[in-house]
Design a protein that fits this description.
Blueprint (H helix, E strand, L loop, with lengths): L5 H16 L5 H14 L6 H20 L3 H36 L14 H17 L8 H9 L12 H9 L6 H4 L2 H34 L6 H32 L17 H7 L2 H12 L9 H19 L3 H30 L7 H23 L3 H13 L5 H4 L9 H24 L3 H6 L3 H18 L17
């Protein structure tokens, strides 16, 4: 069941109506049933995996809390991590491991017929984070299994995040059975939630899905295109994946906000960041912070010297690449990104000295936009490996980008045969302008769209929402004649 579908709209309305009329003590049970149903719409069999992960992490956390022996607590934590990562490894990485072994021994090993369960990386990390927090004493174990199961499977963020922390989400779920109807459905939060859902749907079906036509066309057969096509695909993909994932996260946050549940922000205008380090603090925040707290810091973080700090950073980025996909292209993306972050960290003092020497005003919009563009280009370089189907495909893209100049396609109209015609390009340009303005507000004023719009007068607020709805309905990419794009991060 996709967020950009009529099915989800009907499902969500039913969830809200029943949540409103049923007694407060049944709200958590109702949301758990809805969450399981939501997930089972993809493949009913895989609900067993969520239940298994739920039971293992819940039971281990209770055991850790009740045990007084350090060795027993460590054993329970280790067992929890091994079981959950073992399940993840089997479904996501076993065929990758077999393929790697086959390459090493130069002997073909047949791949197994394994279907990747949607969202398995997300709910596995969320459940593991809870158990680790209980082990560290940051979280009191949840004794109510229904409530904890809802935390693991809460449907708005189940299949593609944000990867929530128990310290944030569990407490809010606990209050569901205590709130009055007027406290559960607060008009202000409902309006904010609707704004977020509309905007999330806009950047998904108007921007991301429109760009996917262009990007898939060019990446699918890069030998047909020259410099212009490669540049369009280069920038097109990073904007596509941003809008696709940011769109899902925004709808997720909006749907939860309507039910008075606040999920963590997952994107904070990353392409207006002025450094790679800053960009990664604003990109997929829930995963970046998860790796920071549960991998980078346990490895030693920055406490054991500069060399160790850079090594830890590199390991985190490689693991992040592997988390995204079972292929060496993802590992290469993570490794290259790690190296770029290290280079930037080494050069940062020199860059600051140059800025100070030329007395650069770092609050100047033009300067920040220049830095943001440069940072985005650096971010996009390893992203080619992320998107490419193979190393050969990625190398072909880079080669043709720099060795096949064909600027004439911009004047003879050939560029409009790359997947988007003149009208589609204009629609995309207008939509990207709206995206830029929203992200600029987020960066310059520190306000998300819902908070900013709620601070404007009602007429302007309605006008903005009507424009977004109009573009969704008229220019959104959906329907029987369109190959509806599943959210990209569902595969992770």
């Amino acid at each position: 069941m996709l967020f950009n579908s009529i099915d989800f709209f009907i499902f969500f309305i039913i969830v809200l109506l029943v949540l409103y009329v049923i007694p407060a003590k049944f709200r958590q049970v109702w949301l758990l049933i809805c969450s399981y149903f939501f997930y089972m719409c993809w493949n009913p069999v895989f609900i067993v995996l969520i239940i298994a992960s739920t039971l293992v992490t819940w039971g281990c956390a209770l055991g850790i809390d009740r045990s007084e022996k350090v060795s027993t607590r460590k054993l329970l934590l280790a067992a929890c991590v091994i079981v959950n990562l073992g399940i993840l490894f089997y479904f996501k990485y076993l065929n990758f491991a077999l393929e790697t072994v086959s390459m090493i021994i130069h002997r073909e090993i047949s791949a197994l017929n394994i279907i990747l369960p949607v969202g398995i990386s997300f709910y596995t990390f969320q459940a593991l984070g809870y158990t680790i927090d209980c082990y560290r004493g940051k979280m009191v174990p949840e004794k109510n299994l229904i409530r904890y199961a809802l935390f693991v499977s809460f449907f708005p963020q189940l299949v593609a995040g944000p990867i929530e922390r128990s310290t944030n989400l569990l407490g809010q779920l606990n209050r569901l059975s205590e709130l009055k109807r007027s406290e559960l459905f607060v008009p202000q939060k409902m309006r904010e939630g609707v704004i977020l859902m509309i905007y999330g749907l806009f950047i998904k079906v108007v921007v991301a899905d429109r760009l996917s036509v262009l990007v898939d066309n060019i990446f699918g057969d890069p030998t047909r295109y020259g410099t212009v096509g490669m540049i369009m695909a280069f920038f097109g993909f990073i904007v596509q994946i941003y809008c696709d994932f940011h769109g899902y996260s925004t709808i997720s946050i909006g749907a939860s906000r309507i039910m008075s549940i606040d999920l963590m922000e997952n994107f904070a205008a990353p392409f207006l960041a002025t450094s790679m380090n800053d960009l990664w603090k604003k990109w997929h925040i829930s995963l970046s912070s998860w790796f920071r707290d549960y991998l980078y810091i346990p490895l030693g973080g920055s406490r054991k010297g500069t060399v160790r700090k850079y090594f830890n950073l590199f390991i985190v980025m490689v693991v992040s690449g592997l988390w995204h996909g079972a292929a060496w292209t993802y590992v290469a993306w993570g490794a290259i990104t790690g190296v770029l972050l290290i280079i930037e960290a080494v050069l940062r003092p020199f860059v600051h000295k140059i800025d100070d020497y030329f007395e650069i005003d770092k609050t100047n919009l033009g300067f920040n936009l220049y830095r943001a563009f440069f940072t985005t280009v650096i971010f996009g370089f390893p992203a080619v490996f992320f998107r490419a189907s193979s190393f050969e495909n990625a190398i072909t893209i880079f080669k043709r980008m720099f060795t096949r100049p064909d600027w004439y396609v911009l004047s003879d109209g050939t560029v409009f045969e790359y997947g988007l015609n003149v009208q589609e390009m204009w629609i995309l340009a207008i939509a990207l302008l709206i995206l830029f303005v929203v992200d600029l507000i987020r960066t310059r004023r520190g306000l998300t769209l819902d908070k900013w719009l709620m601070g404007q007068f009602a007429g302007f607020r309605v006008a903005v929402l009507m424009v977004l709805i109009f573009m969704i309905v008229v220019f959104g990419k959906y329907g029987v004649q369109f190959d509806s794009q599943q959210f990209i991060y569902f595969q992770f």
